[in-house]
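Input/output pair, single chain:
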Amino acid sequence: MEIVGLSEEKVKKISEIKHENDWVLDYRLKGYKSFVEQKMPLFGPEINLNFDDVIYYKNNEADKKSGNFEKFADNYLNFVKRLRQHYPNSKIVIMGSVSGSEYRSEATRKAAELIEKNLKNVYFMQTEDWKIDICDDKTHPTVQGYEQIAENAANFLESIF
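Output:
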């Protein structure tokens, strides 16, 4: 599935597809509003961009059909099984990515489901719903973001130990 072009409805659809919290949708809608209010720069060479032709969302149907998600999940499960062999009585906690691509999130979610179904005392710390302050590079947490990660992780760990 692809979403080409951008509108408020398409922003809402993307957020719905990704099962995002309301705060993420609000953030997206504010970003969309700012985007549509921007004017193209008047300096430099003329750039003729048609934003209605841009693909703003593309899911990973090809990877799903090719089995790449399942291969990733199987490999992840095998890794955790090897870890379990070395620590047979320990609780194992796996932390999801705090920031990253949708692909990584979806593939990791599939791996977590497989692991939790097949192994005992293995806990997957879902991080997708955490509100974390991210740097301008859109990838790395700020200092406050790291503090938020630590607080969320501590709360999760307290719930299982």
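DSSP finds six helices and four strands in the chain. The chain has a mean pLDDT of 82.
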